[in-house]
Amino acid sequence: MFPVQEVEERLREIRKGNSLAREDFLEDCKPFIFKVACRFCGRILDWGRDDELAVALIAFNEAIDRFREDAGVPFPAYARMVINSRLADYRRKEGRNAAARGGTLPLHPDVPDDTELNRAWEVYWEEAADREREEEIKEYEGLLKKYGVSFEDLVKCSPRHRDTRETLIRAALALVENGELFAGLLSKKKLPLAELAKSTGISRKILERGRKYIIATALLIYRREDFLYLSSYLNLPAPGKKEV
User: Fold this and answer.
1) Which domain holds residue 194?
2) One domain for residues 164 and 126
3) pLDDT tens digit string along 58-116?
4) Are 87 and 41 contacting, i.e. CB atoms less than 8 angstroms apart?
5) Counted domains in the chain
6) Is residue 192 domain-resident?
7) What b/e string do you get for 33-67 counting C-beta neighbours within 10 Å, with b at 16 or more?
8) Could you tell me the CA-to-CA distances from 76 to 50, 63, 94 in Å, in that order?
9) How many CB atoms lie within 10 A of CB 142?
């Protein structure tokens, strides 16, 4: 996906009735839609063969119309919930008994009016979002432990000054965009200080001091689509490329 601000700007443009903006956004987000659908189905899907991808695309388009910026849920996470719900409904209608992750909301619930339907949707995604946030934090905590980093460490080492934070985020982004250096981090579980200092021009002393913060941020940037709530909350930049 894209940085939070860009997503919000594009959604606002779509809501003005710009059909071309909607088409472009849907096309740009197809990789995200594909990943969510494949993960739900537990297999690699094909756009020209599998109906699940068409269901997911329609669900994503629905999410565009239903999403509210004041809901406290980032759009990618909300879109993922809608896609998962619609795919679960599709499986149910097709007579497939594969387990759906989380709750689902019927496509055409038997409710007397739109108000009750909208409230049902609000309750559904509020509960689903709370569940996903909790799961995401646990998964991220487990990932950090592999690199010798804890949440307590992050609280202690998080930069207090904006300039320092921006410098460390720049280092983390440069690390992710350098396939060789990032592969070294993944394999050795250690920050390549000398190489990163050379490639970024940031002093080794600063990198060493912010080592745990850089590692935690780089992992979050690299796996931003797995940690949608955290990456959105921190408003981290998207990498220009991933070569790992």
Assistant:
1) 146-234
2) no
3) 999 999 998 988 777 889 999 999 999 999 999 888 874 444 445 555 444 444 455 66
4) yes
5) 2
6) yes
7) bbbbbbebbeeebeeeebebbebbbebbbbbbeeb
8) 22, 9, 27
9) 9
Mark whether 73 and 170 lie in a shared domain: no
Q: What is the DSSP string of the chain?
A: ---HHHHHHHHHHHHTT-HHHHHHHHHHTHHHHHHHHHHHHTS---TTT-HHHHHHHHHHHHHHHH--GGGSS-HHHHHHHHHHHHHHHHHHHTT--PPPSS----SS---SSHHHHHHHHHHHHHHHHHHHHHHHHHHHHHHHHTTT--HHHHHHHS-SSHHHHHHHHHHHHHHHH-HHHHHHHHHH-S--HHHHHHHH---HHHHHHTHHHHHHHHHHHHTTTTSHHHHHHHTPPPPS----
Considering the domain architecture, whether residues 151 and 171 belong to the same structural domain is answered as: yes
Higher pLDDT, 6 or 164: 164
10: its two tokens: 């594009």
Q: What is the pLDDT of residues 3-62, one digit of tens each?
A: 666 888 899 999 999 999 999 999 999 999 999 999 999 999 999 899 999 999 999 999
CB neighbours of residue 236 within 10 Å: 20
For the chain, report the end-to-end CA distance as a whole number of angstroms.
18
Main-chain phi, psi angles of 210, to 5 degrees: -105, 20
Within a domain: 244: no
